[in-house]
Amino acid sequence: MNLALILPLLFTAVLGSVNYFVLQFRQSPILPWDIASAGTALSVADHFSFTPSARLLGILAAYLFLILFSVKVNLRLKKRPLSRAAGFGLTSLLFAGYVLCLQNDTIMNALNVYEMPFTQDYTYEQNGFFVSFFVNTKYLKVERPEDYSPERADELLKEAGRNGTDSVLVSADRLSANMIPASDKDAPNIIVVMNEAYSDLSAIGDFEASGDYMPYFRSLYGSENTISGNVHVSVLGGNTANTEFEFLTGDTMAFLPTGSIPYQQFLTKELPALPQVLKDYGYTTTAIHPYNSNGWRRDEVYPLFGFDEFLHNGSFVNEERLRGFITDRAAFQKVIQVYEEKKDDGPFFSFLVTMQNHGGYAKEWDGFERTVTAKGQEDDALSKVNAYLTLLKITDDAYEDLISYYKNVEEKTLILMFGDHQPHMDASFLTELYRKDYNSLTQEEMALRYQTPFVLWANYDIEEEENVEISANYLSTLLMDAAGLEKTPYQKFLGALREKLPVITANFCIDADGNFYGSNDYGRLKEFLGDYEIIQYNHLFDEDNRKKENFRNISGM
After folding, report:
1. What region, left, alpha or beta, does residue 385 occupy, with left being phi > 0 and alpha being psi -120 to 50 degrees?
2. Nearest-CA neighbor of 361 among 301, 429, 295?
3. What is the pLDDT at residue 109?
């Protein structure tokens, strides 16, 4: 009996402590699909500061008291195998019934179980951990859209292929004049840098710092041959792979289970994506990530997208490191190295996911000094902010060198850099930025935490644009337009949709008039989102009925 008492106590103590720190680091509790990404989380855990609060220590002390008390329990039941088997069976049935009840909307409504995927921390607070955790398991399976049929998806994409000739940012005449046939070797090189946790926190609210932490990046806003603005993403403080997924595929997390990771849950077969589209144009395609190759299953997913090769931390020998991570400067140099090796093989596409700015920011590291500091009360929160701002400045210097190199390259080259998500920051600092209690923010105010900057730069003449508001699922379409490459029917559909609904994320949408819609308002956007959901389901889940020509430009093959 004492073992039966102690094991549940240990389990809930460990689970509660882990959930406490997960909430601290990413402001979202443990979700069912996090189990699959535990290895990725553990690989970077040493960069975070695990400082328990007095409340947590008090709770753990109470657990310790109960465990010590349970050790003294000497009750022992008689050995009755049939009774034990019956008890085990009944317990299993009760547990299964408990979970199934939490999948039933009628029972959920009757019990007033709170569901708001955008605020999982508040949902867990209202329902308790286990109720919320098992409610979320129903999202592990993606339901077929109500009006779905492969014929309907094909019809929508054929219509998009016929009509989607204009670009949001490039005039129809100019786009037609610049259009490059799929067999043309004069297509521009394309370099994409998805920079880890790269963001400008002043987008939330002004604060004073000892110096500008991204001066060169800002200098490109509105400059010649650049397109710049804000990317709205679906994740905060982590789950980088979801921003990758939206960018590379054109699909959106809005139609997928809250908190899910497509790389881990849904991608097991080849999927037409940006790398494959560019391969059809004759591009060589290289993915680079200076960290573990198996993080988020990248080593398995990238080939499914059409990447020719994947360079990970094993490809970096004696490279510069900061806080134990390979620096952005070293990663940018790797892009240049690969380009120089491949520049005679036709146009070059590189997709780099950096690692330098990964959280956490609380520790002291050898060789790392916080040279950019935020003004204000000196506390633990500011120490983290100062580390983050310093890292941004280091990235900015390296980025300037990358652009300087390609300014002197004769071949036409496009470089797109954007952040995958904002970092986790303490509520005290965020309260300063918002000028109000962080825990009382509206959905629209909270949406500012899902915004990162982007710059698309070219070393040749392209049409400039600034103050662009866009979500990650549209970025590859923007890139195709800027490169003058003919878009696939799916990309043309996205281009047309973007004119009406330029921002679509898992948490909110913004229409062309600037109106904000929280995720609970998506029913009002069915006119726009319904067709998109049908096409995405066909693209992502209905491989047997997916037509290649809808998602790849194979006219020149």
Report:
1. alpha
2. 429
3. 82
Decide if 465 contacts 220 (C-beta within 8 A): no
The answer to whether the beta carbons of residues 170 and 463 sit under 8 Å apart is: yes
Comparing CA positions, the residue from 426, 441, 420, 385 lying closest to residue 505 is 420
How wide is the angle at C-alpha 450 spanned by C-alphas 449 and 453, nearest 5°? 100
Q: What tokens appear for 545 in the block? A: 């009925």
Q: Which helix (H) or strand (E) holds 457?
A: strand 451-458
Other C-beta atoms lying within 10 Å of the C-beta of residue 282? 16
- Calpha distance 132→124 (Å, rounded): 6
Supply φ then ψ for residue 337, to 5 degrees: -60, -45
DSSP class of residue 358 equals P
Name the H helices within 379-451: 380-407, 427-434, 443-446
Ranges of H-type helices in 408-451: 427-434, 443-446
Q: What is the pLDDT of residue 170?
A: 38
Distance, CA of 329 to CA of 327 (rounded, Å): 5
Q: Assign residue 547 a region (left: φ > 0; alpha: ψ between -120 and 50; beta: otherwise).
A: beta
Peptide bond just before 360 cis, omega within 30 deg = yes
Which carries the bigger pLDDT value, residue 3 or residue 452? 452
Please provide residue 348's backbone torsions phi and psi, each rounded to the nearest 5 degrees: -120, 130
Most distant CA pair in the chain, distance = 87
Q: Which amino acid, 524? A: R
In terms of pLDDT, which residue wins out, 131 or 248?
248
Residue 258 sits at the vertex; the CA angle it makes with 253 and 260, to the nearest 5 degrees, is 75
Q: Strand, coil or helix: what is 164?
A: coil
| Single-letter amino acid, residue 315 | S
User: Can you say whether the dihedral through the CA atoms of 371, 374, 379, 385 is positive or negative?
Assistant: negative
Q: Quick check: 212 pLDDT over 90?
A: yes
More confident residue, 109 or 225: 225
The whole-angstrom separation of Cα 411 and Cα 459 is 8
Rounded Cα distance between 479 and 482, Å, is: 5
Confidence of residue 169 (pLDDT cuts 50, 70, 90): very low
The H or E element containing residue 330 is: helix 328-342
- Report the mean per-residue pLDDT for the chain: 88
Task: Give the dihedral sign, CA 282/457/448/212.
Answer: positive
CA 289 – CA 305 distance, rounded (Å): 15
pLDDT tens digit sequence for 378-414: 666 788 999 999 999 999 999 999 999 999 999 999 9
